[in-house]
What does this fold into?
Amino acid sequence: MPNPPTAAAIVVAAGRGLRAGPGGPKQYRMLAGEPVIARAMAPFCRHPAIGAVQPVRNPDDAEIFDQALQGLTYRPAVSGGATRQASVRAGLEALAAAGAPPDVVLIHDAARPFVSAAVISRAIEAAGRTGAALPVVPVTDTIKQVTPSGDVGATPDRATLRSAQTPQAFRFDLILEAHRRAAREGREDFTDDAALAEWAGLTVATFEGDVANMKLTTPEDFAREEARLGAALGDIRTGTGYDVHAFGDGDHLMLCGVRVPYHRGFLAHSDGDVGLHALVDAILGALADGDIGSHFPPSDPQWKGAASDRFVAYAMGKVAERGGRVAHLEVTMICEAPKIGPLREAMRERIAEITGLPVGRVAVKATTSERLGFTGRQEGIAATASATIRLPWSD
Ligand code: MG
It folds into this structure.
């Protein structure tokens, strides 16, 4: 076995998750704004020692699966079987058929969204060293064995007990052969791969798991973890922005990312989209990170005629870099004409598209200035904006 071994991961997502209550398979539900399965797979996709990630999903879930995992790189998903064991075997066979099978394979449940890079590293190391290993954590409750009538039959010594987690990790050739043999012999009842490996005669070692690497099973698990993750983004900030552009020659205006035919254009270095410029300043303001001019100097020729959705995407990227989320965006357009009311929904949808937010988190409002001042004289358009963002507490 080379050191370090080559490694692949199988993420099993074919189950229906019925114990987690209504709302569809639990692995596709949102947890603090991100699908559970994306949280479970991303640490493998991003781990430098994992060469390939092989997901196994239910054939009925193709569309929701692709949607949930946008932005991650993984092997084409294969369809699972009737049992978890059959699904894992489908993943192993897919890796075997792909050529150049890995030295070791990690098998992970999509319902464990908090797996860390450190646990993955320990799994690869343990599989390379022992051939078969699983992450465990100490049991904190005293465990009772009960009789069919509900009486205590025995109290096992807690010091000898561990809770089993995933990713369970194996030499690829050993676990593939064990799964094939179990299928040949009609054994389809193993609930985890370590039990199957034991049955196949392998010695299964343990390595240090992580109490945070819990499995989401019940509605209460979802509610508790949602609350925990929400509290972790408790640094709530509001930023505001303001922008003005004068009319010049032209035949259209860019307003909140929407192209609006008009008998004037904007005098501006970029496309002059006052709504989006105010929004960028609002987001940067909430981050206390300068303003649109400091990030995109008007003196820099590369921004000449630039579409302003790029500036918004950049500001959203700054929020993501800080581990934050945008809770709400609002723009108020101040002009006599064009009329904003009929454009409002298109503007909200465009901002939602640029930012990746649900449209319910985007507000667009409009007012005139009662024919007073430069907007009243129709010399240009002004816009104000606010952004509410949530960041992890850092100080
Ligand atoms: Mg501007």
